[in-house]
Specification:
By secondary structure, the chain is of the alpha+beta class. It folds into two domains: 154 residues, no CATH class; 175 residues, no CATH class. It is built from five helices and 24 strands. The strands form five sheets. Strands 1, 2, 3, 4, 10, 12, 14, 15, 16, 18, 19, 22, 23 and 24 form a 14-stranded mixed sheet that branches. A four-stranded mixed sheet has the order 9-13-17-11, with no helix packed on it. A two-stranded parallel sheet has the order 5-8. The longest helix has 21 residues. About 17% of the residues have low confidence. Keywords: Signal. InterPro entries: TUNICAMYCIN_INDUCED_1. This is Tunicamycin induced 1. It comes from Ilex paraguariensis (yerba mate).
């Protein structure tokens, strides 16, 4: 009787242990923490890549798509829509990214429901509090109007801080210059018509664009055209430019026209409009310049006419206009948008199953086993747009070529040692 109870208890303990070991909750192999899923933005990027390459999702398999190897870079994007002879020509230009780094963007994080919505960031990467890039500080000169969007707690300094409430629209009078910092994008609100002909570059300046800007500014001064209107997204401050010269007067006067609408004008009426202090790309004040209308591109007061980017724009515009660039006439700019962009560069591989007759096996060694699939390596350059990652360019790259190693027996035709001829060497005193 005692042995029966003891054996039953042993069997019960074994069953409990077996149930615990086979329980899914106690298994470490299927734990989601060991194999977290891709974020939705990255999963959508993979699907877009497969469709863009023209592959079927059933025939290909993407491997090596590791977010820990993703590089993040900042760049500038220029988008224009030019109307020439009732034809609309869209353009999109991207500056080269001069620095790639490992940054933990919010889109790289995977939410874990077991951790109350806290994202699992990638280890060993630089944390980024705000994933939105901003433009370098730049200067704008009147006459023009600025529409402000998404500007929370924007600072207005003239040069001292002024509390004007939440600003939605700022009018810059003729002669007023402001420095804009923290903006994410600048765009044209209304189409503008520019006169022709387009002068050729000379004396180290993009004279064609400078002439167009000068004509446009005089038209706005004479009120021959509606005021130039720009939309600025997310600026953190509008300040009066500072100068290294103590005698210069860069103060601005503020006039409240309506709630959220102010006008900024120059405090000194005798100050020349063209006398504008220059600010470098980092926003630090430099020596005072006195550029005239042939060296400064209005309304960008901080952009000198000798800037290399202007020569590229002028050459592009000349090629688009063609012979019309040297004739009297006009053309329209329907859209002009300059924005700071975030790009992601990541490498991956594609494994595709080979179908019969799809690959030419000529020159393939007979002793090698024919593969059933082929692997190709790519690199994708994608743009981050909010919660989405849009592929811009997918390039095929050549991986490191692995050299084949062949055993000596294969080179000898798989001959055995018994078939090799016996060679007897002459005896030597040192042979035992």
């Amino acid at each position: 009787m005692g042995l029966g109870l003891r054996s039953q208890s042993v069997v019960a303990i074994c069953l409990v242990l077996l149930a615990v070991r086979s329980s899914p909750s106690a298994s470490l192999i299927v734990s989601p923490d060991l194999n977290p899923p891709y974020p939705k933005a990255i999963s959508d990027l993979k699907e877009a890549i497969v469709k863009g390459l023209g592959f079927q999702s059933d025939d290909v398999k993407i491997f090596g798509f590791d977010l820990r190897d993703a590089l993040v870079g900042r760049s500038m994007a220029y988008e224009f829509d030019v109307e020439v002879d009732n034809r609309v020509l869209p353009f999109k230009l991207l500056e080269d990214v001069n620095r790639w780094e490992f940054v933990d963007l919010p889109i790289f994080q995977v939410e874990d429901p077991k951790r109350s919505g806290v994202g699992n960031g990638l280890i060993g990467r630089q944390k980024l509090d705000d994933g939105l890039p901003v433009l370098a500080p730049f200067q704008l000169a009147g006459p023009m109007e600025l529409w402000i969007q998404d500007a929370k707690d924007m600072r207005l300094s003239l040069p001292h801080d002024v509390d004007a409430g939440v600003l939605k629209k700022v009018i810059l009078a003729d002669g007023a210059v402001v420095t804009v910092k923290g903006a994410r994008s600048v765009s044209l609100r209304h189409p503008i018509e520019l006169p022709l002909p387009l002068n050729q570059s000379q004396n180290g300046f993009a004279s064609g664009l400078l002439t167009l800007a000068d004509r446009l500014r005089h038209a706005y001064r004479a009120k021959e055209a509606p005021l130039l209107s720009l939309c600025i997204v997310g600026p953190t401050s509008l300040t009066s430019p500072t100068s290294s010269s103590p005698s210069s007067n860069n103060k601005l006067k503020l006039k409240l026209l309506a709630p959220g609408l102010v006008e900024l004008s120059s405090a000194s009426k005798t100050k020349a409009v063209e006398t504008i202090p220059a600010v470098d790309i980092e926003g630090e004040a430099t020596a005072l310049l006195t550029p005239d209308r042939f060296t400064t591109l209005w309304p960008l007061a901080s952009l000198n006419g000798s800037n290399s980017n202007l020569f590229g724009f002028e050459a592009l515009l000349s090629s688009v206009l063609g012979p019309k660039a040297k004739k009297e006439g006009s053309f329209k700019v329907l859209k002009a948008d300059v924005s700071a962009q975030t790009f992601v560069k990541i490498g991956f591989g594609v494994e595709k199953k080979l179908k019969e007759g799809e690959f030419d096996w000529e020159g393939f060694p007979l002793w090698r086993t024919k593969p059933e699939s082929v692997r190709m390596h790519f690199e994708v350059l994608a743009e981050v747009e909010g919660d989405r990652v849009v592929p811009e360019r997918v390039m095929q790259v050549n991986p490191v070529i692995v050299e084949d190693t062949v055993a000596p027996s294969v080179l000898m035709g798989n001959m055995t040692v018994s078939n090799n001829p016996i060679v007897l060497h002459p005896p030597t005193p040192f042979l035992l």
